Amino acid sequence: MKSIYGILVLIGLLSFSSCTKDITVDLPDPESMLVVEGYIENGVPPYVLLTKNSAYFGGIDLNDLGSYFVRGARIRVFEGNDTVQLAEFCVQSLPDTFQRAFLRAYGYEISDSSEVPDVCVYTIPNILSYYNGDTVSTFIGRVNHTYGLIVEAEGKTLTSSTYIPGVVPVSLSYEPRSDEANDSLVTVNVTFTQPDTPGNYARYFTQRNDESMYPPASQSAYDDALFSGSQQYTFPIERGQSKYDEVDFDTYGFFWKGDTVTVKWAQIDKKAYDFWHTLDNDGGDNPFSSPVRIKTNIEGGLGVWCGYGAYYATLVVPE
Predict the structure, then answer these.
(1) Which residue of 64, 130, 223, 250 shows the fewest CB atoms closer than 10 Å?
(2) Is the distance from CB of 240 to CB of 167 less than 8 angstroms?
(3) Is the dihedral of CA 199, 263, 137, 102 positive or negative?
(4) 260: enclosing H helix or E strand
(5) Whose CA is closest to 151, among 298, 307, 316, 315?
(6) Rounded CA gap, 256 and 243, in Å?
(7) What is the pLDDT of residues 230-268, one digit of tens each?
(8) Cβ distance 202 to 227 under 8 Å?
(9) What is the DSSP string of 108-170?
């Protein structure tokens, strides 16, 4: 197999032995499509982020994130004869006391109240009742149930369905990264018993102390191809962090002594796994990666409608 280092050397030699020439590639703008990022979890109401796609080399105005969100959509989630029409909540229309908590619940972090983006989320109309502890009269996910999704916006109709599998309990342990007495970093391991039936898929997230919960950057979704059923497995997990944070390669993936570590271990169905697996393996900005076509489970659009059968485990690492 050819070494990628050999390719890099060849490119370097060619740069010395030939003239350079600018090449302009005229890429057509993509077809305008709606992008769904929607979730429903056992014990948690559904929520949907609805945005538009943009050109691959198009700039994203971080000062005007609100322009990418699609408003005024009609979004319904149903399970059997039980249907809920989601309501639209935009962060900047909420009282200041709710803005930070609301953003954090949906994976956004802000360091300054003046930086609040105009993020809009579709969720159940009585979401405040849920946050006040009402899980009886609110529409929440249940394991071993299938949930349909219908999105109507801008003259388009998008549909999808997802299944919430049963949860798989996990336990956590830790071990020092090295034998050095002054090394403050630890590796956290997850232990679980693989279900005895084939065709299981999982995705995990980690939380350090009171930070938000993030999936690992390298690979977050797994299938059971490497596991045989009804056996116990233990393997190290990677600490997730915001993709906007600078990567410190000396500490990347590890936790610290004294940390409170929370892991969300979520079972997902095959279509959701295909989406996350292809997204995890997309090379991004790496010019030497193979192109990957991300698999969506949204009919008529892009993105994912994902059910999570989630189990939460917590570990306090001693100082």
Answers:
(1) 250
(2) no
(3) negative
(4) strand 260-268
(5) 298
(6) 20
(7) 689 999 999 999 887 889 999 999 999 999 999 999 999
(8) no
(9) ---SSGGG----EEEE-TTHHHHHTT--SSS--B-TTEEEEEEEEETTEEEEEEEEEPPP--E
